[in-house]
Amino acid sequence: MSSNAQFSLGIGNIMWRISVIFVCYFVSSTAAQVIPKHNCSEYFTYGIDPRGEYIGILTAHKGGLPKLNFRAEFVAMNYNDVSNLLLYPNESQSIFNINKGFRGQMYVYFSSSEALPELKSFYVNNKLLCRQSSDHTFGGHLQIEKTRQTSTSTKIQKIKNTRPKMLPTFPKIEPRRFI
């Protein structure tokens, strides 16, 4: 085999490897979950629970409320993309936190394989805390409303900083080594 033929085969092999790398990069970048933007960062955040599932955590506007009525409206592709509201991080810890004077929190699970459902509006005790801007279009998507009430009869402590600690577990990203 001539040196030109070997050179040509070497270039072809390199080009094939580069093509495979670009295809892998494109597939991995398009398969990632899309986290929507929102204008409610003080009261809502996306996160990942310890099992690796996507959640949305909703937080009341102030602590010291013995009765909480959460209402959240989401926009999603399917009705099943948003679970019912659950007390965050669990029922007993949530009531304990409320009794200690912290702001109440609830969360939903998201099961969408494409873009996560988007928060459209959020109310606590019928007070509007945030709403998606009117210039955003939700064409072809379902509007899903989730509500839940909770209350406590225990005397609630007064504290200065009622902002709760939101601790969703984010995935660990291991550095890639290219040889």
User: Helical percent range?
Assistant: 10-25%
Derived structural class: alpha+beta
Low-confidence stretches: 20-31
H/E order of the elements?
HEEEEHEEEE
Spatial gap, N to C terminus: 29 Å
Let me know the average pLDDT: 79
| Count of runs of 4 or more consecutive helical residues | 2
Number of strands: 8
Strand order of the largest sheet: 1-2-5-4
The domain tally reads 2
Q: What percent strand?
A: 25-35%
Dominant shape: globular
Description:
The protein has two helices and eight strands; from the N terminus they run αββββαββββ. With 179 residues, the chain is α+β, with helices and mostly antiparallel strands. The protein has two domains: 1-32; 44-151, no CATH class. The strands form two sheets. The chain has a four-stranded antiparallel sheet with strand order 1-2-5-4. It has a four-stranded antiparallel sheet with strand order 7-6-3-8, with no helix packed on it. The two termini are 29 Å apart. Mean pLDDT is 79; it is low at 20-31.
Features:
179 residues; alpha+beta; 2 domains; four-stranded antiparallel sheet; 21% helix; 28% strand
Any chance you could write out the topology, listing elements then pairs?
Blueprint: H1 3-30, E1 44-48, E2 54-59, E3 67-76, E4 86-87, H2 91-99, E5 105-109, E6 118-124, E7 127-131, E8 142-151
